[in-house]
Design brief:
With 868 residues, this protein is mainly β. It has 4 domains: 152 residues, Immunoglobulin-like, CATH 2.60.40.1930; 497 residues, no CATH class; 135 residues, Immunoglobulin-like, CATH 2.60.40; 30 residues. It is built from 5 helices and 58 strands. The strands form 13 sheets. Strands 3, 5, 6, 8, 11 and 12 form a 6-stranded mixed sheet that branches. It has a 6-stranded mixed sheet with strand order 19-20-21-22-23-27, with no helix packed on it. The longest helix has 30 residues. It is globular. The termini are far apart.
Length: 868
């Protein structure tokens, strides 16, 4: 029930508006005289009974529906009589409750103690108007005051059962995800803008990889070493200017990318590929074409959208792959068209022409929002993709049932062109929801927006410009913000000027480096001094800096990322700096050391930041225009953002590209092209398999039992012939610490690494007495084999369970077998001698004595004769 409160409005809205479409079809009676109408207030509670501290959803309203889906009754309140006799008034913080068009609404009530509560809805009298008209009434009629019958809410110490949230998976999982598994949203995020070196903070990736474990791979195109007379030459990577694997996106578990390089534009055949990111299966591979005014032209992915349409008719998400056409042109840019396709099948859906230019922002329902700001004219307009009313189900009247359905399919729509004036489109233009003036004077450059919050920008005073380093000789920086909050749009929130230090002389290049309204920070970089200065996006004040100077090599290739309350910075030095975004304090540094002496200008690799997810920042190696043969052992790594400690590093496994598509993530799986072999890899937690064997024959009680088996990696990539031929018994599962080297061996044919450690297996038994307990643990070896001996405690039949609990690289697995232990048999005594007879007992000793006496006499006689 604790999770119910944020959804109360939506649940109520969805539940009690089932009749909304029918309401608009009811004929209105023609009434000539104003009349008083009796009303019938009601109240309900779900659940009832309810436990102390649990939420119960109150259903509040009257039984008179209104004439339009946008109309409502106002000012309702609820009286509550507590078990101790005290009373309470529920009235939405003094504003009163407002119903929907069915006449009802909802409110979450949490009773503080046990007992019976008496609740009643109070409806205040109100006069019908054209914008608040009961079905069957006329303007001027009075809806009389009413009070509902009393409702007894029973509150008990015992909590009422509620639907329990499903836990996150502990086994390998795939799409689709049943929509009842709502908690899985934490691991099933998408990346809807093409991956780049911007260090986006990616949500919905709580299982972000902790190792370099490869799930699958397939060739992008013929790549890798050419061989033969060409020696160490490798296939062209696309750097510089002709990148491969571009336009890469992740949409609900589907990886989308452009297969070949960007040469030739729309004149050369080029395929778009869609891959199931969990299994590596190619879903489709084809060319996509424009429709409408720019039909026949090839188009390529620009961005994606997952749009949640929530109206009185329909509710649910719509995933789209969006390809652009038009645009470009230096002197007169052509209008841009957006072509929408189904990501699962590549089926064409619809086209929007004359799409707005500007930064794409995302609203709470995934709608595309673009703010068009003209600082010189002092105006702001807001375009919202959900307000392209010509995309609706043929309806242009908000009261029409067709208004409530999202049906753009098959239409070619001017998404900024003229449309009917409605409450959603007051300017009479598709998508445009308002235009406001800026209440003040600002100038310069806008650098960030936050929907329904603010936009921020800056300007500065300077002495000259530098082609490569920004502006030189900056003497002052002014940071400003303008409100985008509904009801306050256009207000200048702040405009603060900071005088630069004297060290920023004419020969120092200054650039605006990064900004995040979410983290409250805008930064500037002094190239020759290699330091940063931070400003607040809340107040415009300078809040920290200049920082201590970074390594001199950072004057080249400086890249920064703001996220999770931190400011990350690195350049050609290969040293990653993490600053506190609020204070500017240096929290830690990470060095991408080069143990192979491949880098010619530094002791560290030049790495670039890719994205932040699940408390880790990921980075990979690139170069603007690398020489061939490529430097070997380029790292791909993940670093803990709290401590700066290395989570994992893979040298030579996933080399990145400067001009093509970089690594991206969705569903907690990374997808990337590797420029060493031009293959596309899926990186993430994969499935494992375990076997267990024990003696088939019955074993004697007290004897040792040997249990053994194999633990293998059964990820999709291990099923290819190249793997099954080399590993006929399966690819062994290995420890997280060995994963990077092991992946080079398994998937890239590097030499087999020495000292490989497998994974830990626990051996448990279910004994004949019904007890379950562990009898030992074992660690598998480089072949996947494990073994463990134990002595059963009692005779009988046992179930033996071998379990691998999983690791950063693998989900767990288990297997069972059975053994029989027999009761030990008693040992048989040796045969007993039969008893002697009486004759034997007395005669045998006498006879022996006589024989001995004769022998002695004989010996004496023989001695005497010799002496003579």
């Amino acid at each position: 029930m604790n999770k119910l409160k944020p959804k109360v409005a939506t649940i109520t809205y969805s539940t009690i508006l089932i009749l909304a479409m029918a309401i608009s079809l009811f004929p209105l009676s023609t009434v000539n005289a104003q009349v008083d109408r009796v009303t019938y207030a009601y109240i309900g509670a779900t659940p009832n009974p309810v436990g102390v501290g649990q939420e119960t959803l109150l259903h509040i309203g009257i039984m008179q529906q209104l004439s339009s889906t946008r109309q409502s009754w106002e000012g309702l309140w609820v009286s509550v009589k507590h078990p101790d006799g005290t009373t309470e008034k529920l009235d939405n913080d003094g504003k009163g409750f407002t119903t929907d068009s069915t006449g009802g609404t909802g409110y979450s009530f949490v009773p503080p103690g046990e007992g019976e509560y008496i609740l009643q809805t109070h409806f205040p009298a109100q006069v019908c108007t054209s914008s608040k008209l009961a079905v069957g009434s006329a303007v001027g009629d009075t809806m009389l005051e009413s009070v509902s019958p009393e409702l007894t809410l029973v509150v008990t110490a015992e909590q009422q059962p509620v639907y329990q949230e499903h836990p996150l998976p502990t086994e390998f999982w795939t799409r689709p995800i049943d929509s009842q598994l709502r908690g899985w949203s934490a691991i099933s995020g998408s990346q809807l803008e093409a991956g780049g070196y911007g260090g986006d903070v990616l949500t919905g990736n709580a299982y972000a990889p902790e190792t370099a474990h490869i799930l699958w791979k397939h060739p992008l195109q013929l790549g890798g070493l050419a061989g033969g007379d060409l020696g160490g030459a490798g296939t062209y990577t696309g750097d510089a200017y002709e990148g491969k694997f571009s336009s890469s996106l992740m949409i609900e578990g589907i990886l989308i990318y452009r297969k070949f390089d960007t040469i030739g534009g729309s004149d050369v055949a080029n395929w778009i590929v869609a891959v199931d990111v969990h299994t590596g299966e190619k879903l489709w591979e084809k060319e996509l074409f424009a429709y409408g005014n720019s039909s026949e032209a090839r188009v390529y992915p620009s961005f994606a959208q997952i749009f949640y349409w929530d109206s009185f008719n329909a509710h649910g998400t719509h995933p789209y792959l969006v390809c652009s056409s038009g645009g470009g042109g230096f002197f007169a840019p052509a209008p841009t068209a957006w072509h929408f396709f189904d990501p699962l099948t590549a089926r064409y859906l619809f086209t929007w022409e004359d799409a707005p230019s500007g930064t794409r922002n995302r609203g709470p329902h995934g709608e595309i929002i673009v703010y068009e700001v003209d600082l010189s004219a002092g105006t702001i307009r807001m375009w919202n993709s959900s307000a392209v009313t010509d995309a609706y189900w043929g309806g242009t009247t908000p009261d029409s049932p067709t208004w409530g359905s999202w049906r753009p399919q098959g239409k070619i729509t001017n998404c900024t062109g003229p449309c009917t004036v409605t409450f959603a489109t007051p300017l009479g233009l598709n998508g445009y929801q308002w235009e406001e003036t800026i209440k003040g004077s600002v100038s310069g450059t806008i650098v960030d927006y936050k929907v329904d919050d603010r936009l921020v920008g800056y300007n500065w005073s300077y002495t000259s410009s530098s082609m490569f380093g920004g502006t030189m000789g900056v003497t002052a920086i002014t940071v400003w913000g303008i409100s985008l909050e509904p009801g306050n749009v256009g207000k200048v929130l702040f405009q603060k000027t900071w005088n630069a230090p004297s060290s920023w002389a004419a020969d120092v290049s200054i650039s605006q480096q990064d900004v995040s309204i979410e983290d409250g920070l805008m930064t500037f970089w002094a190239k020759e001094l290699t330091h940063h200065v931070g400003f607040s996006t809340e107040t415009g004040d300078k809040i920290w800096g200049p920082t201590e100077s970074q390594n001199y090599l950072d004057y080249l290739g400086q890249r920064t990322v703001i996220g999770e309350g931190r400011y990350f910075s690195l350049g050609m030095s290969g040293i990653l700096h993490c600053y506190n975004a609020t204070t500017g304090d240096l929290m830690w540094t990470y060095r991408a050391d080069d143990p192979y002496n491949q880098v010619l200008w530094s002791n560290q690799w030049h790495i670039r930041l890719l994205f932040i997810a699940d408390g880790k920042i990921y980075a990979g190696t690139t170069e603007h225009s690398p020489v061939d043969p490529l430097t070997r052992g380029a790292p791909f790594c993940a670093v803990d953002i709290e401590t700066g400690e290395e989570v994992f590093r893979a040298d030579g496994l996933f080399r990145q590209t400067d001009w093509g598509g970089r690594a991206i993530m969705g569903d907690s799986i990374i997808a990337t092209m590797d420029t060493y072999d031009l293959q596309v890899y899926g990186i993430g937690k994969g499935p494992s398999a375990i076997t267990v064997e024990a003696p088939d024959s019955a074993q004697a009680f007290g004897a040792q039992i040997l249990v053994k088996g194999m633990v293998t990696d059964v990820s999709p990539g291990t099923k290819e012939y190249a793997s099954t031929a080399r590993f006929p018994n399966g690819v062994p599962a290995v420890s997280d610490a060995n994963m990077s080297q092991w992946m080079l061996y398994v998937h890239k044919q590097f030499e087999r690494p020495a000292d490989i450690v497998g994974v830990e297996v626990t051996i448990s038994v279910f004994d004949p007495n019904g007890n379950v307990y562990s009898v030992g643990t074992a660690t598998s070896d480089a072949t996947g084999l494990y073994s463990c001996a134990f002595v059963p405690e009692v005779p009988g039949t046992y179930t033996v369970i071998a379990a691998f609990d999983g690791s950063g690289a693998y989900y767990g697995s288990s297997a069972e077998t059975a053994i029989t232990v027999e009761e030990a048999q008693e040992s048989t005594p040796p045969p007993t001698e039969p008893p002697a007879s009486v004759a034997d007992m007395y005669m045998l000793p006498s006879t022996i004595g006589i024989i001995v006496a004769i022998a002695v006499v004989g010996l004496l006689l023989f001695t005497m004769i010799r002496k003579r």
